[in-house]
Every structure is written in structure tokens, then in C-alpha cells.
Amino acid sequence: MEAVDSSPQEPNTQPKPASKTFPGILLRLILVFAAGCLVGAVIYFAASGWVPYLDQRVFQPIDKNQALVKELQATQNALESQLSSLQATIDEAHSGAGSEITAALVQLSEDVIHLQSEVENNTHYAGTLAPAMIATVSAGQESNTRNLSALATAQMRDSGNRQEIELLQTLEILTWAHQYILHDNYGLAENELGTARDKLSEMITRVPPKQRVVVLEMLNLVDQCIADLPSRPAVAAEKLQLAWYMGTADFPSEPLYNQEGSVTPTLYITPTPTPVPTSD
Asked: Residue 192 belongs to what domain range?
């Protein structure tokens, strides 16, 4: 039989871990709280620094671009309205000028036939009726001259309206080019600028001297915009705005005809004085 160990067992006297005691738990809570405060402070100061940066670099430019797009859209609508109004005006002028020319030609033909009839019927009375016939022919010639002058003036007014329409069309093209630059569509912007350059080049040969100076400056700015794309879109957009402003505000209002009638238009028919008949 095995001997029974009757010696008393010693109690377990090992100390408990510090994490399971109250001071250890309190220390861990303090460390967790301190770490949370540190992380929260880092997040707060990082956010307080990034929010103004994002607002200045991202949100404000977006709002500014949206406002510019709305302004350009309103300007485009106004230009389209003016273009439609001028187109209606030029159509009315065309129809009115055509009817006036037809009526004047009919009246001129009737006057010539009437004068020829009077000359043929009163040839043998030339000795007594010569002064009256001369006065009648002179009056008819003066009337014809006034009619032709009025027709030439109407043609000059019609030419001025066409040039105003060309200017509005050019401004509309510049507006589209500016919108394409804002949306980074540099290829479409260059196409529109090329079209505007062609129209301005054609206008230079037809506008009066004061307006020609403004058109030359606008053409120079458009050429600079084409050279700045696509490397410097911001500079090109500013120059394009300046060219558009010159076309709307700096373009001098110089009519192509004189309202008081000081301009004498070139007549298509030169009246020939009727020779004075001599009595036999």
C-alpha cells in the first residue's frame, strides 16, 4: 500500500495580475481616455484646417463658374433676341425697299412715256410751247433725281442693318467660345474663335474708319486668344471677355448714311437734259 502524504499543503500565495486589480483598471481607463482625446484633437484640427482650404479651392470656384455660366446664358439669350429683332427689321426693310423700287420704276416709266408723248404731239408748236416744255422736262428730271436718291439712301440703310447683324453674330460666337473655354473644350473654342476671326476680317473692309479701329483691336485680341489656347486658358478667357466688351460698349455708333441728306448717292441713271427745240 502506498503511503499517504499527510503533510499539510501550502496555500497559493502568487500575487494577482495588476490588470485585474482596481488601480490597473483605472490606469487603463485613463490611458484609453487620453488616447481618445489625442485622436479627437488631431481630427478636429485637421478638419478645421482643411474645410477652409476646400471651400476656397473647390467650392468657391464652382459657385463662381456657375454664376458666370448663368450670366453668359442670359447674355446669349439677349443677343439672340436682338438678332431676331434685327433680322425681322431687315426683312421688313427688304420688302419695303423692293416695293418702293418697283413703284419708283413704274412711275419713272410713266413719266418718260408721258414726256415723249408731249414732245411728239407738240413738235410743230415748239416756237410757242418751248418754254413750258422745258419747264415740264426739268421738273420731271428733278423728280426722277429725287426718287433715285431716295432709293440709293434706302440701299445704304439696308447695308448698315446687315453690318449690325454681322456684329451681333460675331458677339454670339465669342460668347460660345468663352463657354467652351470655361468647360475646358479648347478644340471647340478654337473653332469658334476661327469663325469669329473670319467675320471680323470681312467686317474690316466694310465698316467706317472709326468702327474699323475697334474691329482691328477685337481681331487682335481674338488672334491672341487662339495663340494662348490650350496652354493659358485663363488668359485667353480674359482677353475674350475684353473683345466681347469692346464689341458691345466701345463700338462707335456711326451711321453709314447722313440723316440730313448731305451725302449724295451715286445714281444708276444720269438724266440727260432735253434739247431746246428751235422754231423754223
From this structure: 73-250
Q: Report helix angle 126-182 to 186-204, nearest 10.
A: 160
**Burial state string for 62-82 with b = 16 or more CB within 10 A and e = fewer than 16:** eeeeeeeeeebeebbeebeee
106 found inside a domain: yes
Q: What is the number of helices (H) and of strands (E) in the chain? A: 6, 0
Q: Is 50 exposed, middle or buried (0-12, 13-18, 19+ CB in 10 A)?
A: exposed
CB proximity list for 83: less than 8 A, separation 6 or greater: 165, 168, 169, 172
Is 138 within the bounds of a domain? yes
pTM here?
0.42
Q: What is the dihedral of CA 159, 163, 168, 174, to 10 degrees?
A: 160
d(CA 189, CA 213): 25
**Residue at 27 is within a domain:** no
Asked whether residue 216 is domain-assigned, the answer is yes
Distance CA 124, CA 246 (A): 70
- Extract the C-alpha cell encoding 273: 437734259
Q: Look at the chain and report how many structural domains it folds into.
A: 1
User: CA-to-CA distance for 139 and 185, rounded, in angstroms?
Assistant: 66
Residue 249 CB neighbours (<10 A): 7
Write out pLDDT tens, residues 114-169.
Answer: 776 766 665 555 555 555 555 665 665 565 555 545 544 444 444 456 777 888 88
